Amino acid sequence: MTGTVRKRGFEVVSGYKDKGIALPKRKTAKSAAYDIEAAEDVVVPPHGQVSIPTGLKAYMQDGEYLGIHIRSGISFKNSLSLLNDEGIIDADYYNNPDNEGHIVIGIMNHSSKAVTIKKGERIAQGIFKRFLLADGDEADAERVGGIGSTGV
After folding, report:
1. pLDDT single digits (tens) 14-34
2. Residue 23 belongs to domain with CATH number
3. Strand extents, DSSP E, the chain
């Protein structure tokens, strides 16, 4: 990649460097999304919720974000959903001082039985997307932290 400008992609956060974290991949040439795996074993309690670490961070260009979606297979088979419908990873989340931009997946269990998610299990999909700005947009603040740092 010498001389090539990096546009968008994934890296392993420093706390997970030696833990066998796989970088997300598309499974077919026409897939829109990159499959994201769980970085640790996690049990999602009945009618409960958990945050699942991925060990990953994502970099992208200004005017882009990474949309996070639950994989349909794990959702349908286990009655799971994302807590926030679509996770949005902003470009300035990368390498933030609070958590290095670590992507964490919030999962809700809608069933009456616990669901075990194993390290390496594909739990979510990430799609890089472009976005538009409204006329007169003057946002000029800089991110100062991790999850929820732009306001809760």
Report:
1. 999 999 999 999 999 999 999
2. 2.70.40.10
3. 9-12, 34-37, 42-44, 49-53, 56-59, 64-70, 80-82, 87-90, 104-109, 115-117, 122-130
In a domain, 72, yes or no: yes
Tell me the Ramachandran region of residue 138: left when phi exceeds 0, alpha when psi lies from -120 to 50, beta otherwise.
Answer: alpha
CB 10 within 8 A of CB 57: yes
Count of residues in the chain: 152
Instruction: Give a yes or no: residue 138 inside a domain.
Output: no
> How far is residue 87's CA from residue 106's CA, in Å, rounded to a whole number?
9
Q: What pTM value is reported for the model?
A: 0.89
Query: CA-CA distance, 63 to 61, in Å (whole number)?
Result: 6
Here the tokens at position 151 are 């306001």
Q: How far is 87 from 103, CA to CA, in rounded Å? A: 9
